[in-house]
Write a structure and sequence with these properties.
By secondary structure, this protein is mainly α. It is built from 10 helices and 7 strands. The longest helix has 47 residues.
C-alpha cells in the first residue's frame, strides 16, 4: 500500500510481440506452476497419479466410457490418451474427454456423455465396499454372540463410535424416535469418515472435497428432513407466533431456511475438506517454490515445510472425524426441528 514499482508484462521488452508471446509460452511450459498442481490434486481425474520420475509416471489409469449419438459407445483405458495422444477419435484436454477429427481438431458437432469411472467414482465405490464389509462383519459378531459375549477385534473400535452417535447425537436431538433414524445417521457418519480418511492417503482422491458428492449427501438429508416434518413444523413456517406486522418478513425467511439447512451441510463439508488438502499441498510446494529461486533455499526450507505439512496432516485426521460428526449431528438437529411439537417430546 505504501510503495510502488514497475513490472514489465514481457520478459524482454525490446523484442517484438510475436517473439515475446513465444518466450512467455516456453516459460510457462518449463516452469513450476503451483496453481495448476493444486487444482490437479483436488479435482477429479481419469487416473490415480502417485508420482513422476523423470519422463515416466507412476499411475493407475482408469476406464474411459463415453457415448455420443454420432459415434455410439466407446470404452478404453485412459492410458491411451496420456500426453495429448489421440485414440479412436478421442483425446484428453485438461482432464476432459473430447471428440476430435483426423487432424486432432475438436469436433463441435459431437455431444459427448462421459460415464467414465473416474478416481472419485472408483474410490467412492471402494469406500462403500469397505463400509459394507466392516458393518456386516461387526453385525455378524453381534448376531452370533449378542449381549452375552464381550466385543472383540475391530468390534472394539466400532462399538464406542456407534454408542457415541446413539447417545450424543441421536437421542438428544430425536428423543424417543432416535432408533428410527439410527441406520441413516450411522451410515452417513461412517461413509463420510471412511472417505475422509482414505482421501488423506497420498495419491488418492479427495472425494468429500468434491461438491457433487456433498450435494448428493445434502439432498438425501434434505428429503429425510422433509419426510420427517409434521403439521406443527409447517404451521411454524407459514404462521409463526410473532406479531402480525412481522409475519410478512419472517415467513419468507423461515421458508428459505428449509433450503439453507441442507445447503449448509453441503458447503461446510466441501469447503473444510478442500481447504485442508490445499493447505497441505501448498506447504509441500513451498519447497519447490524456494528451490526455483535457489537450490540452497529449497533445501534450507524443506525441513520447515515438512514440519508444517506433518502438523497440518495430523490436524486433517482430526478434521476427518470432526466433519463426519458435524454433518451427522446437524442432520439429526434438523430432523429434530422438523419433528417440532411431536407428542414423543413429553415422553422424552
Amino acid at each position: 500500500m505504501l510503495f510502488t514499482t514497475t513490472l514489465h508484462a514481457e520478459n524482454e521488452p525490446e523484442k517484438a510481440a510475436s517473439g515475446t508471446e513465444q518466450i512467455g509460452k516456453e516459460k510457462k511450459e518449463g516452469s513450476f506452476d503451483p496453481a495448476e498442481l493444486i487444482m490437479e490434486h483436488i479435482l477429479d481425474a481419469h487416473e490415480f497419479h502417485f508420482m513422476s520420475v523423470g519422463e515416466s509416471e507412476v499411475s493407475i489409469p482408469l476406464p474411459v466410457i463415453v457415448y455420443s449419438k454420432e459415434r455410439g459407445v466407446a470404452a478404453f483405458s485412459y492410458s491411451n490418451l496420456k500426453k495429448g495422444a489421440i485414440y479412436n477419435g478421442y483425446k484428453s484436454e485438461e482432464g476432459k474427454i473430447v471428440a476430435v477429427d483426423a487432424s486432432g481438431k475438436v469436433e463441435e458437432g459431437v455431444t459427448l456423455y462421459d460415464f467414465s469411472l473416474t478416481r472419485n467414482v472408483v474410490q467412492m465405490l471402494l469406500a462403500l465396499v469397505l463400509l459394507s464389509v466392516i458393518m456386516i462383519s461387526v453385525a455378524g459378531k453381534y448376531k452370533k454372540g449378542g449381549a452375552r459375549t464381550a466385543p472383540s477385534g475391530f468390534q472394539n473400535a466400532i462399538e464406542p463410535v456407534i454408542t457415541f452417535v446413539r447417545d450424543d447425537v441421536a437421542k438428544p436431538n430425536l428423543g424417543a424416535a432416535y432408533e428410527k433414524y439410527m441406520p441413516y445417521l450411522l451410515t452417513v457418519f461412517f461413509f463420510i469418515l471412511i472417505n475422509n480418511l482414505i482421501g488423506l492417503i497420498p495419491g488418492t482422491a479427495n472425494v468429500t472435497g468434491n461438491i457433487a458428492f456433498t450435494v448428493v449427501l445434502g439432498v438425501i438429508s434434505f428429503f429425510v428432513i422433509l419426510f420427517s416434518t409434521n403439521r406443527h413444523f409447517w404451521a411454524h413456517i407459514f404462521n409463526p407466533p410473532v406479531p402480525g406486522f412481522v409475519k410478512p418478513i419472517l415467513v419468507p425467511v423461515e421458508f428459505l431456511g428449509i433450503f439453507t439447512k441442507p445447503f449448509a451441510l453441503i458447503v461446510r463439508l466441501f469447503a473444510n475438506m478442500v481447504a485442508g488438502h490445499i493447505i497441505i499441498t501448498c506447504f509441500v510446494m513451498l519447497i519447490f517454490i524456494f528451490g526455483a529461486m535457489s537450490t540452497a533455499a529449497g533445501w534450507g526450507f524443506a525441513p520447515v515445510s515438512i514440519a508444517f505439512t506433518v502438523f497440518i496432516y495430523f490436524i486433517e485426521i482430526l478434521v476427518a472425524f470432526i466433519q463426519a460428526f458435524i454433518f451427522t449431528n446437524l442432520t439429526a438437529v434438523f430432523i429434530g426441528q422438523s419433528r417440532e411439537g411431536a407428542h414423543e417430546e413429553a415422553h422424552h
